[in-house]
Amino acid sequence: MSKDKNKESNPKKELSEWQKRNQEYLKKKAEEEAALAAEKEKEKQARMEENSKMLEEAKKSSSESDEEATSPSKEPSEKAEKTQKEDTKVKKEKEKKKKEKLEKPAKPKIAPVHIWRAVSILVPSVLVLLLSIYLLTPLSTIKHIEVKGNVQTQADDIKQVSGIQDSDYTLSLLLNKEKHAEQIKSNHWIESAKIDYKFPTNFTIEVKEFEIVGYYVTGEDHYPILSSGTVESSPVNLLNLPETYLTVTFNDEQQVKDLITGLSTISEDIKSQIQKIELAPSKATADLLKITMLDTDEILVPLSELSKKLPYYSKIKPQLTEPSFIDMEAGIYSTSLADKRLEEAEEKDKQEAKEAEKKKQEEKKAEEKKQE
User: Fold this and answer.
1) Left if phi > 0, otherwise alpha if psi is -120 to 50, otherwise beta: which for 229?
2) What is the strand order of the sheet 202-209 is part of?
3) Deepest of 2, 251, 270, 312, by most Cβ within 10 A of its Cβ?
4) pLDDT tens by residue, 203-254
5) What are the φ and ψ backbone dihedral angles of 193, each rounded to 5 degrees?
6) pLDDT tens string 41-83
7) How far apart are the C-alpha atoms of 63 and 66, rounded to whole Å?
8) How far is it, in rounded angstroms, from Cα 129 to Cα 136?
9) Would you state the pLDDT for residue 107?
10) Cβ distance 132 to 125 under 8 Å?
11) Among the ranges given (9-13, 102-106, 215-219), the one the predictor scored with the smallest mean pLDDT
12) Pairing state of beta strands 221-226 and 212-218?
């Protein structure tokens, strides 16, 4: 009765979900381990059977050779027996070595995945190490820089404006060569620049300079006007001037740029005939230009309409029989230069007469005021 009471008083506790899953997991794990152990045991037995077969075959081959070696000859001698014993001894040693090799367990092969993982770590590490050593040596800053294409600018000035320092790493210059090429263009003479690299440490800076379109002339000083519309701040040596060149008598920055822009659309045939360009503003046109050609023809044309009207000169020129004056301010008409000079002289005389009359009247008024 007491046992029954104890059983009733201590009923079995129900297992929780986690405990049930844990028991199932442990049971599955035990089954998997048992299956794995059984599989390994089978492989071991198979290897042992294979080794035993190889041993038996080796023994048979050795016994056959021994029997052949020990077969009685018609005239046996002591020397033959001695050599036979030595041969059997060598064969036994060979068999012993074979048995040891067979009995030694084969070394497990390394999986290719692990080899690739090791290579992927070792190779970058070695490269980083070599790069670090290279950067610490003076070899990392050796650079040979050559400048090509410069005529008006000095190579040292181009190197200086590029921002390249002697202490810069060669690798840094290689990676930032486009940036340095862009810096070179800050020189007003340079239209374009590029940096080429040649192994191991050779760099070539190749530049293209703006062309000289003409010269701004004041007194005896000649300042180059570039195809970018920039007027050089330093005059050139008169001995370095070309035989023929375009002369401009004004240096207003915007007007010069507009002039170069307009001339860029004009044919080389017309541009090559221009000798001088100067401002000649009228009451109607503030930006009127007076263009003197090499053959003494004179052209009046507004700066704002230069690219539109000046090309007509190539059509008018064949019709002219003497040095002429072509007026393109409003329309387009031409007259002989002699007639134009006569007209200008008459107009000048009239203007001087007017000014003299005006001055005379002012003097007369001044005398009248004094008398009063």
Assistant:
1) left
2) 144-148, 202-209, 190-198
3) 270
4) 999 999 999 999 999 999 999 999 999 999 999 999 999 999 999 999 999 9
5) -150, 145
6) 887 787 777 777 777 776 676 665 555 545 544 444 565 666 6
7) 5
8) 11
9) 61
10) no
11) 9-13
12) antiparallel
User: Could you tell me if residue 320 is left (phi over 0), alpha (psi between -120 and 50 degrees) or otherwise beta?
Assistant: beta
H runs (alpha helix) in the chain: 2-9, 17-70, 78-103, 112-136, 155-162, 170-175, 177-184, 253-263, 268-271, 306-309, 313-316, 337-371
Amino acid at 122: L
pLDDT of the residue at 136? 83
The structural domains of the chain, ordered by start, are 138-209 (3.10.20.310), 212-347 (3.40.50.10960)
Q: Which residue has the higher pLDDT, 23 or 277?
A: 277
DSSP 70-95: HSPPSS--HHHHHHHHHHHHHHHHHH
The phi, psi pair for 233, rounded to 5°, reads: -80, -15
End-to-end CA distance of the chain: 165
Written as six digits, the tokens of 95 are 């068999």
Task: Give the pLDDT confidence of 345-372 residue by residue, as tens digits.
Answer: 888 888 888 888 888 888 878 777 777 6
* Non-local CB neighbours of 311 within 8 Å, separated by 6+ positions: 266, 267, 270
Tokens linked to 169? 């790493």
With 0-12 CB in 10 A as exposed, 13-18 as middle and 19+ as buried, what is 317? middle
